[in-house]
């Protein structure tokens, strides 16, 4: 039955087209067919819908056909309630070792210093090692700052001189130069003057690791021995600090 309807509609459409092109000679029966002609309909979700070709005759396109008699609307979708929370799963296997990352820029040097303190040292040695302070240097690229603070004196001599100096692992500072201090007295036959003095400097090219920082007394260049005294009746100290290398 549906096939017959489609065939009839197609034939009627051709007749309508022919009639429009020969409207002056249209037969009365054809005019009746033209007036009662309806375009074929297509079935949609809610019933039948007219084809869009009918718009030229009926004036407007009907967007949605009428719902078939007895048809039921599609029910709305209903969301169910959320289920209970599941239990915690087992831990996964440990992953493999990742590739090593890129090397970062050199970091800033942290503070690294030490002081060795001696109370009432009272060392009357004229030549030799006075005291030693052990220090652990962390980097070969850094330098060492050392200083002595304490009492030094000469006694009972004319035009005499004594030299106090530092050594690092038994040798004087290689770069840039030695770290030392002198006490000279022109006429001191009856003088016994004790004075607090400070000797300080920075030494470069010192290897990392344990460094034995020694404080010594000895002869001045071009002078002989004399009566020296170190650390009388007071506190003396050797201070050691690792510092960054100098600017270029």
From TrEMBL:
Region annotated Disordered, chain positions: 59-107
Matching Gene3D superfamilies: 6-Phosphogluconate Dehydrogenase, domain 3
Biased composition (Basic residues): 64-82
Pfam family membership, one: CTHRC1_C
Highest taxon listed in the record's lineage: Eukaryota
Record-annotated CTHRC1 C-terminal domain positions: 110-240
Protein name, entry field: CTHRC1 C-terminal domain-containing protein
Organism: Pocillopora meandrina
Organism taxonomic ancestry: Eukaryota, Metazoa, Cnidaria, Anthozoa, Hexacorallia
